[in-house]
Amino acid sequence: DYHDRYLTDIEHDNHYITSYFRKIDARRKYRGSSALLPLRKVEMQKFVDPYRFKQGKVERKNFIGQTVKLILEMVRKIEKKNMIFE
């Protein structure tokens, strides 16, 4: 299930730039290690930064898919309601 995969697979739904990630990056930078932020343009498409206003590629794809599902469900409900009143 989702929870087990999230806990055991580092790649599963792990594409968010969290405050903890930022903290680790700041610590790396302070110690003189290479910093991970800011992300390159290619990396920005793969990862989601919740503090960024602009949606990433993954977010846009999910948003469009969910919006289409919502519209189809609304149309179905309206048609069903109209059938009841006829």
Automatic annotation (TrEMBL):
Entry keywords, A to Z: Membrane, Transmembrane, Transmembrane helix
Membrane topology label: Multi-pass membrane protein
Q: Does the keyword Transcription apply?
A: no
- List each copy of the Dendritic cell-specific transmembrane protein-like domain by range: 12-75
What residue intervals traverse the membrane?
none
What is the predominant subcellular site recorded for this chain? membrane
Q: Give the domain of life.
A: Eukaryota
The entry's cellular-component GO terms read: membrane
Cellular compartment(s): Membrane
Indicate what this protein is called per its UniProt record.
Answer: Dendritic cell-specific transmembrane protein-like domain-containing protein
The organism is Bracon brevicornis
